[in-house]
UniProtKB/TrEMBL annotation:
It comes from the Bacteria. NCBIfam families: infC. Belongs to the IF-3 family. GO terms for molecular function: ribosome binding; translation initiation factor activity. This is Translation initiation factor IF-3. Keywords: Initiation factor, Protein biosynthesis. The keyword Protein biosynthesis applies. It comes from Weeksella virosa (strain ATCC 43766 / DSM 16922 / JCM 21250 / CCUG 30538 / CDC 9751 / IAM 14551 / NBRC 16016 / NCTC 11634 / CL345/78).
């Protein structure tokens, strides 16, 4: 006859035959819930099933709340962005990295401005160099269609 380890409030924690464990739960007007089926013998708890489900959901919700969500902020440059605009956008990029967001900086080439792709790359590498104290480059500048994209992550 298979046996289970029974735990619960006001119950002596020991190994019972399944029939006896079910009887024990019924005497208290509660349910027998399997907690760990991989254990030898399996572990069951005498508890109110609805309350057990509620607590389990609550626990999962707490774990989910503790997880960090990755936010990606974008900054767009033109291939011929001048120094003042560059500094202004760099200041925003710095604040994004400091708050813990990832940064996606890209140079957008309109029309024939694609001939300045080396200037775009220089611009992104300059941004990475000037922000190296708060972020690290995850993806070096790479041309994708009409955009040259570079990804940066905050330093921990």
């Amino acid at each position: 006859m298979p046996e289970v380890r029974v735990v619960g409030d006001g119950i002596e924690s020991k190994i019972y035959p399944i029939a006896e464990a079910l009887e024990l739960a019924e005497e208290q007007g509660l349910d027998l819930v399997m907690i760990s089926e991989k254990a030898v013998p399996p572990v069951c708890r005498v508890v109110e099933y609805k309350k057990f489900l509620y607590e389990q959901k609550k626990r999962e919700k707490e774990l989910k709340a503790k997880q960090q969500k990755v936010v990606v902020k974008e900054i767009r440059f033109g291939p011929q962005t001048d120094d003042h605009d560059f500094d202004f956008k760099k200041k925003h990029a710095r604040s994004f990295l400091e708050e813990g967001s990832k940064l996606k900086a890209y140079v957008f080439f309109k029309g024939r401005s694609i001939i300045f792709k080396d200037q775009g790359e220089i611009l992104l590498l300059r941004l990475a160099q000037e922000l190296e104290d708060v972020g690290k480059v995850e993806q070096l500048p790479k041309l994708e269609g009409k955009r040259m994209i570079m990804m940066m992550a905050p330093k921990k």
